[in-house]
Amino acid sequence: MQPLAQSWQPQGAGLPRRRSRRWLLVGLAIGWTLLLLGGLWWNLERSRANTLALAAAQARTFADHVLVYRHWNAKHGGIYVEVSDTTPPNPYLAHLPERDILTPSGRHLTLVNPAYMMREIFPLEQQMFGLSGRITALRPLNPKNVPDSWEQGALQALSAGAPEISSIARIDGREILRVMRPLLMQAECLFCHAHQGYRLGEIRGGLSTQVDLRPWWAAGRVHRWGMASGALVLWFLGLGGLWVADRQLRRQEQRRLRAEENLRYLAHYDSLTGLANQSQFFGKLDLFLKQRRGPADLVAVVLLDLEDFRRINNALGRSLGDKLLQIGAQRLRVAVGEFGWAFYFGNGVFSLLLPFVNEASEAGSLAQRALAELQRPCLLDQGEVHLNAHGGIALAPQDGLVPVEVLRHAEIALHAAKGGEGERVRFFNQALGIQAVERVRLEADLRKALERDELFVLYQPQVDGLTGEVRGAEALVRWRHPARGVLKPDCFIALAEASGLIVPLGEWVLWSVCRQIRQWREDQLVVPPIAVNLAAAQFRQVNLPLLLSRILKETGVEACSLALEVTEGVLMYDLEQARSTLVALKKMGLHLAVDDFGTGYSSLSYLKNFPLDCLKIDRAFVRDLPGDAGSAAIITAVVALGRSLGLLTLAEGVDAPEQYEFLRRSGCTRFQGFLFSEPLEAADFVARLRRNA
Ligand code: C2E
Ligand code: MG
Ligand code: MG
Predict the structure, then answer these.
(1) What is the CATH number for 55?
(2) Minimum CA distance residue for ligand 1 atom 43
(3) pTM attached to this predicted model
């Protein structure tokens, strides 16, 4: 057998999802950043446009004022001011006879026309408000009004009909807003300029103004900083929000993954033992069956069923039962080691899967090792407890090529191991397979047997030890099989119990016996109580007392005419439930007997709580009498126990006089066995009764 290198774990599906979430988060962060940058850029642009609009409004206001002064001056045909160094007589007005006048007080005044006045005002504006302006024209009279290149372009655009030209220029390293407005020829202007051929409304030049943008930018800077820092705060808030949302999502996902992991665990593992469950077993077995490299490559399945586990569970309590299961699981895990896997199927059934087995004997020795491990005493607080088990082994490919088939054959082998007297672990073989098929056929026949009335009852007398009188009888069912002849219960009762058919079968026996008793009564016969065997499934039926009272009522039979036999093992299965059922049956007036006493590990302390009438000593103890000292000691003890509890003791299977002699001397009072009578047909039983009388 080769040790296994690979481990087999269910794969988590969380990783790709986590990765895609991370990418989504990065995408959202980038998107958020771009959105904020775009918004900030748009706002800054708007703020810049607003600042420019304000600066342009200032330039326009400045120009409007200058134009108002020009208009006022022109309307008055010019104004006279005193001649000074800064305001000499205007050479361009030399042709006017009244350009210069002398006041009577001797002051020298000269005429100042609008253009001259404006040139005087511009330096003042510059000085006082930082606004500069000048007049300019494409064909200037005064060389001072010659346009620069920008002004030339702007004047041409104005001539082409534009109402205003503005642009930002960089002059001496400063950003300057330049605005050009047209100067139109007005009626007052023609007073001086008509001789030059100028016409009303014509564009003669432009008023060029400049606004230094630095103070405007400075004023807008606070606003822009506000916007930028607002955007920064928003950016952080957004990223924080994303982080929080991501954390929440991550937590949610972790919770979901944990829940999924739990579900996956529960779907694949047994939560009590921690071993993988049946569904994983099938998955894995399927995998290995497909992976086999050749016919020599064997895959072994070992099924192990804990013996009497249910009883141990009931006797010690569920929590200790669970503890034992955990110990058992751990031991199997160690036993199988690196050569395979252990699984738990529930109800005390484990399985071992051993792939890559070279020979059947390898699987056998590993199964024996596992069994030996299970059989080691378990040390609990309450003391030592011994586990035991039976095992069934099936090997692929010879015992099947698909998982269900291999498992079914392992089950058949287990069933054989449990039913047989010999080996605790058995391999599946063809003969077992045929037996299993036979069992299936027999089960189908048994189903029909009830409908076809193939069952009948024999009555085995139970006699008094002293007088030899018949004091009772046990009803024993037989099956007249159409092909196999009359079958004894050994051939079909276990099958009926396994298939659940025992319930209708047992009910049929009860009806049949009660009808027979009524018949005997009608025939004026005095019949002692007849004992009917109750199977475990019947005894555990909650409506058993109800059913019995219905049968008794409908057949008109008194309860004291009927005795019920329940095996010791059935009574010990669930002590409390057994007690309450027995009490109910006793209340009805039925006789109650413990069948096969001595074989079921009775809890003697409980026995006294049960309302019983009779202990039936099992045939196994009678068989070896009087030679076997052990059996003799048991018989003596059971009789003493029965006497102390006020119960009848009845020995079963008495078929030799020495046995009878020993039992009688031991104090046993009732006997049933071939020495007195075999089970009899109803008519023969009546004949025997009559002989009695
Ligand atoms: P049991 O209740 O212990 O019945 C006694 C068995 O011992 C009967 O076997 C009987 O024929 C056999 N026996 C009696 N005296 C002797 C003897 O001197 N020597 C030997 N070798 N055997 C003797 P049987 O009839 O084959 O029944 C076997 C078992 O089948 C019964 O054991 C009982 O557990 C079960 N059984 C029989 N009839 C019914 C039934 O109607 N319902 C249920 N649930 N089980 C039944
Ligand atoms: Mg019996
Ligand atoms: Mg018996």
Answers:
(1) 3.30.450
(2) 533
(3) 0.57
